Amino acid sequence: MSSADPRELIGTAPAVEEKALEAALRPKALEDFVGQSTVRTQLSLVLQSSRMRHTAADHVLLSGPPGLGKTTLAMIIAGEMQAALRITSGPAIQHAGDLAAILSSLTDGEVLFIDEIHRMSRPAEEMLYIAMEDFRVDIIVGKGAGATSIPLELSPFTLVGATTRAGLLPGPLRDRFGFTGHLEFYSPEELQKVLRRSAGMLDMQVSTGGFVEISSRSRGTPRIANRLLRRVRDWALVHGVALVDDSAASEALDTYEVDSLGLDRLDRAVLEALCTKFRGGPVGLSTLAILVGEETETVETVAEPYLVREGLLARTPRGRVATEAAWEHLGLTPPPPRDEETSPLWNG
Ligand SMILES: Nc1ncnc2c1ncn2[C@@H]1O[C@H](COP(=O)(O)OP(=O)(O)OP(=O)(O)O)[C@@H](O)[C@H]1O
Ligand SMILES: [Mg+2]
Protein backbone atom coordinates (compact mmCIF):
# COMPACT_ATOMS: atom_id res chain seq x y z
CA MET A 1 0.00 0.00 0.00
CA SER A 2 2.83 2.47 0.70
CA SER A 3 4.87 3.69 -2.23
CA ALA A 4 8.20 2.92 -0.55
CA ASP A 5 9.05 0.43 -3.25
CA PRO A 6 12.82 0.86 -3.76
CA ARG A 7 12.47 0.18 -7.48
CA GLU A 8 10.49 3.40 -7.82
CA LEU A 9 13.51 5.28 -6.48
CA ILE A 10 16.18 3.68 -8.60
CA GLY A 11 14.02 3.85 -11.72
CA THR A 12 12.92 0.62 -13.35
CA ALA A 13 12.26 0.91 -17.09
CA PRO A 14 8.76 2.33 -17.59
CA ALA A 15 7.44 -0.59 -19.61
CA VAL A 16 8.34 -2.99 -16.83
CA GLU A 17 6.80 -0.75 -14.20
CA GLU A 18 3.61 -0.41 -16.25
CA LYS A 19 3.34 -4.17 -16.63
CA ALA A 20 3.90 -4.72 -12.93
CA LEU A 21 1.31 -2.08 -12.09
CA GLU A 22 -1.22 -3.63 -14.43
CA ALA A 23 -0.68 -6.97 -12.72
CA ALA A 24 -0.96 -5.36 -9.29
CA LEU A 25 -4.30 -3.76 -10.20
CA ARG A 26 -5.84 -7.02 -11.41
CA PRO A 27 -8.74 -8.15 -9.23
CA LYS A 28 -8.05 -11.61 -7.77
CA ALA A 29 -11.59 -12.77 -6.94
CA LEU A 30 -14.77 -12.93 -8.97
CA GLU A 31 -16.51 -10.60 -6.52
CA ASP A 32 -13.86 -7.89 -7.07
CA PHE A 33 -14.34 -8.14 -10.83
CA VAL A 34 -16.38 -5.06 -11.73
CA GLY A 35 -19.27 -5.14 -14.23
CA GLN A 36 -19.94 -7.88 -16.84
CA SER A 37 -22.71 -9.09 -14.57
CA THR A 38 -24.12 -11.60 -17.06
CA VAL A 39 -20.79 -13.32 -17.67
CA ARG A 40 -19.95 -13.15 -13.98
CA THR A 41 -23.21 -14.78 -12.90
CA GLN A 42 -23.00 -17.50 -15.52
CA LEU A 43 -19.35 -18.22 -14.84
CA SER A 44 -19.91 -18.32 -11.12
CA LEU A 45 -22.58 -21.03 -11.64
CA VAL A 46 -20.25 -23.08 -13.82
CA LEU A 47 -17.44 -22.87 -11.26
CA GLN A 48 -19.61 -23.44 -8.21
CA SER A 49 -21.24 -26.49 -9.76
CA SER A 50 -17.95 -28.11 -10.69
CA ARG A 51 -16.61 -27.42 -7.20
CA MET A 52 -19.68 -29.19 -5.78
CA ARG A 53 -19.17 -32.10 -8.16
CA HIS A 54 -15.41 -32.21 -7.40
CA THR A 55 -14.52 -32.17 -11.08
CA ALA A 56 -12.47 -29.89 -13.28
CA ALA A 57 -14.60 -27.01 -14.57
CA ASP A 58 -15.94 -27.15 -18.11
CA HIS A 59 -13.81 -25.46 -20.76
CA VAL A 60 -14.36 -21.70 -20.97
CA LEU A 61 -13.98 -19.41 -23.96
CA LEU A 62 -13.67 -15.68 -23.29
CA SER A 63 -14.07 -13.31 -26.18
CA GLY A 64 -14.09 -9.57 -26.53
CA PRO A 65 -11.96 -6.53 -27.41
CA PRO A 66 -8.54 -6.01 -25.75
CA GLY A 67 -8.30 -4.79 -22.18
CA LEU A 68 -11.77 -5.83 -21.00
CA GLY A 69 -10.55 -8.48 -18.57
CA LYS A 70 -10.09 -11.82 -20.36
CA THR A 71 -6.67 -12.58 -18.83
CA THR A 72 -7.90 -11.29 -15.48
CA LEU A 73 -10.91 -13.65 -15.62
CA ALA A 74 -8.70 -16.61 -16.57
CA MET A 75 -6.60 -15.99 -13.46
CA ILE A 76 -9.74 -15.60 -11.36
CA ILE A 77 -11.08 -18.92 -12.68
CA ALA A 78 -7.92 -20.73 -11.56
CA GLY A 79 -8.07 -18.91 -8.21
CA GLU A 80 -11.71 -19.77 -7.63
CA MET A 81 -11.05 -23.41 -8.50
CA GLN A 82 -7.94 -23.36 -6.28
CA ALA A 83 -6.15 -24.86 -9.22
CA ALA A 84 -2.72 -24.27 -10.69
CA LEU A 85 -2.62 -22.07 -13.78
CA ARG A 86 -0.53 -22.65 -16.89
CA ILE A 87 -0.34 -19.74 -19.32
CA THR A 88 0.52 -19.93 -23.01
CA SER A 89 -0.68 -18.36 -26.22
CA GLY A 90 -1.79 -19.38 -29.71
CA PRO A 91 1.26 -17.95 -31.49
CA ALA A 92 3.56 -19.83 -29.08
CA ILE A 93 2.04 -23.17 -30.10
CA GLN A 94 3.07 -23.65 -33.69
CA HIS A 95 3.69 -27.40 -33.67
CA ALA A 96 1.33 -30.05 -32.39
CA GLY A 97 4.31 -31.39 -30.42
CA ASP A 98 4.52 -28.14 -28.41
CA LEU A 99 0.93 -28.60 -27.39
CA ALA A 100 1.35 -32.32 -26.64
CA ALA A 101 4.20 -31.46 -24.27
CA ILE A 102 2.09 -28.91 -22.40
CA LEU A 103 -1.04 -31.08 -22.25
CA SER A 104 0.74 -34.19 -21.04
CA SER A 105 2.39 -32.28 -18.21
CA LEU A 106 -0.88 -30.87 -16.82
CA THR A 107 -1.92 -32.13 -13.40
CA ASP A 108 -5.45 -33.07 -12.33
CA GLY A 109 -7.77 -30.04 -12.42
CA GLU A 110 -5.10 -27.64 -13.67
CA VAL A 111 -6.26 -24.63 -15.67
CA LEU A 112 -4.60 -24.15 -19.04
CA PHE A 113 -4.97 -20.62 -20.36
CA ILE A 114 -4.39 -20.17 -24.09
CA ASP A 115 -4.42 -16.49 -24.98
CA GLU A 116 -5.09 -15.49 -28.61
CA ILE A 117 -6.33 -19.01 -29.20
CA HIS A 118 -7.45 -18.08 -32.74
CA ARG A 119 -3.77 -17.87 -33.75
CA MET A 120 -2.91 -21.51 -33.11
CA SER A 121 -1.71 -23.69 -36.01
CA ARG A 122 -4.17 -26.10 -37.61
CA PRO A 123 -2.46 -29.37 -36.48
CA ALA A 124 -2.28 -28.10 -32.89
CA GLU A 125 -5.93 -27.10 -33.09
CA GLU A 126 -6.92 -30.60 -34.20
CA MET A 127 -4.96 -32.12 -31.34
CA LEU A 128 -6.75 -29.77 -28.97
CA TYR A 129 -10.22 -30.93 -30.15
CA ILE A 130 -9.52 -34.46 -28.97
CA ALA A 131 -7.77 -33.36 -25.80
CA MET A 132 -10.71 -31.17 -24.80
CA GLU A 133 -13.28 -33.85 -25.44
CA ASP A 134 -11.60 -37.10 -24.46
CA PHE A 135 -8.60 -35.90 -22.38
CA ARG A 136 -6.32 -37.78 -24.73
CA VAL A 137 -3.63 -36.96 -27.25
CA ASP A 138 -2.52 -39.20 -30.06
CA ILE A 139 1.25 -39.20 -30.43
CA ILE A 140 2.41 -40.16 -33.92
CA VAL A 141 5.51 -42.33 -33.91
CA GLY A 142 7.46 -43.06 -37.08
CA LYS A 143 6.89 -41.89 -40.65
CA GLY A 144 4.99 -42.94 -43.75
CA ALA A 145 3.37 -46.38 -43.93
CA GLY A 146 5.05 -47.51 -40.70
CA ALA A 147 3.71 -44.61 -38.62
CA THR A 148 1.56 -45.55 -35.67
CA SER A 149 -0.38 -43.40 -33.29
CA ILE A 150 -0.05 -44.03 -29.59
CA PRO A 151 -2.88 -42.69 -27.45
CA LEU A 152 -1.79 -40.89 -24.28
CA GLU A 153 -4.25 -40.33 -21.44
CA LEU A 154 -4.34 -36.82 -19.96
CA SER A 155 -5.40 -35.64 -16.53
CA PRO A 156 -8.75 -33.85 -16.64
CA PHE A 157 -8.01 -30.13 -17.05
CA THR A 158 -9.90 -26.93 -17.72
CA LEU A 159 -9.06 -25.06 -20.87
CA VAL A 160 -9.63 -21.32 -20.78
CA GLY A 161 -9.28 -19.78 -24.22
CA ALA A 162 -9.21 -16.06 -24.88
CA THR A 163 -9.74 -14.37 -28.21
CA THR A 164 -10.34 -10.89 -29.52
CA ARG A 165 -11.70 -12.50 -32.69
CA ALA A 166 -14.27 -15.16 -31.84
CA GLY A 167 -15.36 -15.16 -35.48
CA LEU A 168 -11.97 -16.55 -36.53
CA LEU A 169 -12.30 -19.68 -34.37
CA PRO A 170 -13.22 -22.76 -36.38
CA GLY A 171 -16.67 -24.11 -35.48
CA PRO A 172 -15.43 -27.47 -34.13
CA LEU A 173 -13.15 -25.68 -31.65
CA ARG A 174 -15.80 -23.18 -30.56
CA ASP A 175 -18.33 -25.99 -30.04
CA ARG A 176 -16.05 -27.82 -27.62
CA PHE A 177 -16.17 -25.06 -25.05
CA GLY A 178 -18.85 -25.72 -22.46
CA PHE A 179 -19.24 -22.03 -21.73
CA THR A 180 -18.57 -18.94 -23.80
CA GLY A 181 -18.45 -15.55 -22.15
CA HIS A 182 -18.52 -12.49 -24.34
CA LEU A 183 -17.13 -9.42 -22.59
CA GLU A 184 -18.85 -6.12 -23.34
CA PHE A 185 -17.51 -2.59 -23.07
CA TYR A 186 -17.98 -1.08 -19.60
CA SER A 187 -20.39 1.72 -18.71
CA PRO A 188 -18.93 4.96 -17.29
CA GLU A 189 -20.32 4.00 -13.84
CA GLU A 190 -18.57 0.62 -13.96
CA LEU A 191 -15.32 2.29 -15.00
CA GLN A 192 -15.65 4.68 -12.08
CA LYS A 193 -15.77 1.65 -9.77
CA VAL A 194 -12.63 0.23 -11.41
CA LEU A 195 -10.93 3.63 -11.04
CA ARG A 196 -11.94 4.02 -7.39
CA ARG A 197 -10.41 0.67 -6.56
CA SER A 198 -7.21 1.43 -8.48
CA ALA A 199 -6.88 4.96 -7.02
CA GLY A 200 -7.08 3.41 -3.56
CA MET A 201 -4.29 1.00 -4.43
CA LEU A 202 -2.18 3.82 -5.90
CA ASP A 203 -2.72 6.06 -2.86
CA MET A 204 -4.34 8.77 -4.98
CA GLN A 205 -6.92 11.33 -3.87
CA VAL A 206 -9.52 11.79 -6.61
CA SER A 207 -12.91 13.53 -6.33
CA THR A 208 -16.10 12.05 -7.77
CA GLY A 209 -15.90 14.62 -10.57
CA GLY A 210 -12.35 13.51 -11.27
CA PHE A 211 -13.44 9.87 -11.61
CA VAL A 212 -16.32 10.89 -13.90
CA GLU A 213 -13.94 12.85 -16.13
CA ILE A 214 -11.42 10.01 -16.42
CA SER A 215 -14.10 7.36 -16.96
CA SER A 216 -15.75 9.31 -19.78
CA ARG A 217 -12.46 9.30 -21.69
CA SER A 218 -11.63 5.62 -21.11
CA ARG A 219 -13.44 4.14 -24.13
CA GLY A 220 -15.35 1.63 -22.07
CA THR A 221 -12.10 -0.23 -21.26
CA PRO A 222 -10.66 -0.87 -17.77
CA ARG A 223 -7.09 -1.16 -19.05
CA ILE A 224 -7.37 2.31 -20.58
CA ALA A 225 -9.06 3.67 -17.43
CA ASN A 226 -6.17 2.41 -15.30
CA ARG A 227 -3.61 3.74 -17.73
CA LEU A 228 -5.21 7.20 -17.84
CA LEU A 229 -5.37 7.16 -14.05
CA ARG A 230 -1.62 6.57 -13.87
CA ARG A 231 -0.95 9.40 -16.32
CA VAL A 232 -3.19 11.70 -14.26
CA ARG A 233 -1.20 10.61 -11.22
CA ASP A 234 2.04 11.67 -12.97
CA TRP A 235 0.51 15.02 -13.89
CA ALA A 236 -0.82 15.62 -10.38
CA LEU A 237 2.50 14.67 -8.78
CA VAL A 238 4.52 16.99 -10.98
CA HIS A 239 2.03 19.85 -10.62
CA GLY A 240 1.78 19.37 -6.86
CA VAL A 241 -1.98 18.71 -7.01
CA ALA A 242 -3.06 16.71 -3.95
CA LEU A 243 -6.71 16.19 -4.88
CA VAL A 244 -7.59 15.43 -8.49
CA ASP A 245 -10.94 17.04 -9.31
CA ASP A 246 -12.72 17.23 -12.67
CA SER A 247 -10.77 20.20 -13.98
CA ALA A 248 -7.40 18.75 -12.94
CA ALA A 249 -8.28 15.43 -14.59
CA SER A 250 -9.42 17.13 -17.76
CA GLU A 251 -6.33 19.36 -17.95
CA ALA A 252 -4.09 16.34 -17.39
CA LEU A 253 -5.80 14.25 -20.07
CA ASP A 254 -5.78 17.12 -22.56
CA THR A 255 -2.01 17.17 -22.13
CA TYR A 256 -1.90 13.51 -23.20
CA GLU A 257 -4.10 14.20 -26.27
CA VAL A 258 -6.98 12.09 -25.05
CA ASP A 259 -10.02 14.02 -26.19
CA SER A 260 -13.47 14.45 -24.65
CA LEU A 261 -14.80 11.26 -26.28
CA GLY A 262 -11.68 9.37 -25.26
CA LEU A 263 -10.31 9.24 -28.80
CA ASP A 264 -6.54 9.07 -28.88
CA ARG A 265 -4.08 9.80 -31.64
CA LEU A 266 -4.79 6.56 -33.54
CA ASP A 267 -8.58 6.90 -33.41
CA ARG A 268 -8.43 10.46 -34.65
CA ALA A 269 -5.89 9.53 -37.34
CA VAL A 270 -8.28 6.84 -38.65
CA LEU A 271 -11.22 9.24 -38.79
CA GLU A 272 -9.15 12.04 -40.27
CA ALA A 273 -7.71 9.78 -42.99
CA LEU A 274 -11.21 8.57 -43.80
CA CYS A 275 -12.69 12.08 -43.98
CA THR A 276 -9.89 14.09 -45.54
CA LYS A 277 -8.38 11.49 -47.92
CA PHE A 278 -11.48 9.57 -48.98
CA ARG A 279 -14.38 12.02 -48.60
CA GLY A 280 -15.63 9.88 -45.71
CA GLY A 281 -15.30 6.53 -47.51
CA PRO A 282 -16.14 3.80 -48.24
CA VAL A 283 -12.56 2.60 -48.08
CA GLY A 284 -11.02 -0.81 -47.35
CA LEU A 285 -9.56 -1.58 -43.93
CA SER A 286 -6.06 -2.37 -45.21
CA THR A 287 -5.82 0.94 -47.11
CA LEU A 288 -6.91 2.76 -43.98
CA ALA A 289 -4.33 0.91 -41.88
CA ILE A 290 -1.50 1.81 -44.27
CA LEU A 291 -2.51 5.47 -44.22
CA VAL A 292 -2.31 5.67 -40.44
CA GLY A 293 0.87 3.56 -40.34
CA GLU A 294 -0.53 0.71 -38.27
CA GLU A 295 -1.13 -3.01 -38.64
CA THR A 296 -4.54 -3.91 -40.05
CA GLU A 297 -5.22 -5.92 -36.91
CA THR A 298 -4.44 -2.95 -34.64
CA VAL A 299 -6.87 -0.71 -36.48
CA GLU A 300 -9.51 -3.44 -36.51
CA THR A 301 -9.25 -4.56 -32.89
CA VAL A 302 -8.01 -1.45 -31.08
CA ALA A 303 -9.51 1.58 -32.82
CA GLU A 304 -12.53 0.31 -34.72
CA PRO A 305 -14.72 -1.34 -32.08
CA TYR A 306 -14.92 1.87 -30.11
CA LEU A 307 -15.39 4.10 -33.17
CA VAL A 308 -18.22 1.84 -34.37
CA ARG A 309 -19.76 1.73 -30.92
CA GLU A 310 -19.66 5.52 -30.63
CA GLY A 311 -21.38 5.80 -34.01
CA LEU A 312 -18.39 7.55 -35.60
CA LEU A 313 -17.57 4.85 -38.12
CA ALA A 314 -19.67 2.29 -39.98
CA ARG A 315 -18.61 -1.01 -41.54
CA THR A 316 -20.32 -1.55 -44.88
CA PRO A 317 -19.85 -4.28 -47.51
CA ARG A 318 -17.94 -1.71 -49.62
CA GLY A 319 -15.64 -0.58 -46.81
CA ARG A 320 -15.39 1.76 -43.85
CA VAL A 321 -17.49 4.91 -43.82
CA ALA A 322 -17.30 7.99 -41.58
CA THR A 323 -20.65 8.98 -40.11
CA GLU A 324 -22.06 12.46 -39.71
CA ALA A 325 -21.04 12.35 -36.04
CA ALA A 326 -17.43 11.78 -37.10
CA TRP A 327 -17.36 14.89 -39.30
CA GLU A 328 -18.95 16.83 -36.47
CA HIS A 329 -16.50 15.55 -33.84
CA LEU A 330 -13.53 16.50 -36.02
CA GLY A 331 -15.09 19.90 -36.69
CA LEU A 332 -15.13 19.25 -40.45
CA THR A 333 -17.85 19.76 -43.06
CA PRO A 334 -18.78 16.73 -45.19
CA PRO A 335 -18.36 17.31 -48.95
CA PRO A 336 -21.53 17.61 -51.05
CA PRO A 337 -22.72 14.26 -52.46
CA ARG A 338 -21.15 13.22 -55.78
CA ASP A 339 -23.50 14.19 -58.62
CA GLU A 340 -23.57 10.87 -60.56
CA GLU A 341 -27.33 10.57 -60.29
CA THR A 342 -28.03 14.20 -61.08
CA SER A 343 -26.41 14.28 -64.55
CA PRO A 344 -28.94 15.82 -66.96
CA LEU A 345 -31.00 13.33 -68.97
CA TRP A 346 -30.71 15.18 -72.28
CA ASN A 347 -26.95 14.51 -72.35
CA GLY A 348 -27.24 10.98 -72.70
N1 LIG B 1 -13.80 -6.13 -14.47
C1 LIG B 1 -12.67 -5.55 -14.08
N2 LIG B 1 -12.58 -4.99 -12.87
C2 LIG B 1 -11.44 -4.37 -12.50
N3 LIG B 1 -10.33 -4.28 -13.25
C3 LIG B 1 -10.36 -4.83 -14.47
C4 LIG B 1 -11.53 -5.50 -14.94
N4 LIG B 1 -11.27 -5.95 -16.18
C5 LIG B 1 -10.02 -5.57 -16.48
N5 LIG B 1 -9.46 -4.90 -15.45
C6 LIG B 1 -8.13 -4.30 -15.44
O1 LIG B 1 -7.75 -4.04 -16.78
C7 LIG B 1 -6.45 -4.56 -17.07
C8 LIG B 1 -6.52 -5.32 -18.37
O2 LIG B 1 -7.28 -6.50 -18.24
P1 LIG B 1 -6.86 -7.86 -18.96
O3 LIG B 1 -5.38 -7.95 -19.10
O4 LIG B 1 -7.54 -8.96 -18.26
O5 LIG B 1 -7.52 -7.66 -20.39
P2 LIG B 1 -7.60 -8.67 -21.63
O6 LIG B 1 -9.02 -8.77 -22.01
O7 LIG B 1 -6.88 -9.92 -21.31
O8 LIG B 1 -6.82 -7.88 -22.77
P3 LIG B 1 -6.00 -8.48 -24.04
O9 LIG B 1 -7.02 -8.88 -25.07
O10 LIG B 1 -5.21 -7.29 -24.50
O11 LIG B 1 -5.15 -9.60 -23.56
C9 LIG B 1 -6.05 -5.42 -15.88
O12 LIG B 1 -4.84 -4.97 -15.37
C10 LIG B 1 -7.11 -5.24 -14.83
O13 LIG B 1 -6.57 -4.59 -13.72
MG1 LIG C 1 -5.07 -10.71 -22.06
Largest sheet: 5 strands, parallel
Helix content percent band: 40-55%
Radius of gyration: 24 Å
The structure class reads: alpha/beta
Name the CATH superfamily classification of the largest domain: P-loop containing nucleotide triphosphate hydrolases
Question: What is this structure's SSE topology?
Answer:
Elements: H1 6-10, H2 14-25, H3 37-52, E1 60-63, H4 70-80, E2 85-89, H5 96-104, E3 111-115, H6 122-134, E4 136-141, E5 148-153, E6 158-163, H7 171-175, E7 179-182, H8 188-201, E8 205-206, H9 208-216, H10 222-238, E9 243-244, H11 246-255, H12 265-278, H13 285-292, H14 296-309, E10 313-316, E11 319-322, H15 324-330
Parallel strand pairs: 1-6, 1-7, 2-3, 3-6, 8-9
Antiparallel strand pairs: 4-5, 10-11
Helix pairs in contact: 5-6, 8-9, 8-10, 9-11, 10-11, 12-13, 13-14
The structure holds adenosine-5'-triphosphate (ATP) and magnesium ion.
Magnesium ion is lined by residues 70-71, 115, 162.
Region (Small ATPAse domain (RuvB-S)): 187-257
GO molecular function, one term: ATP binding
Family: Belongs to the RuvB family.
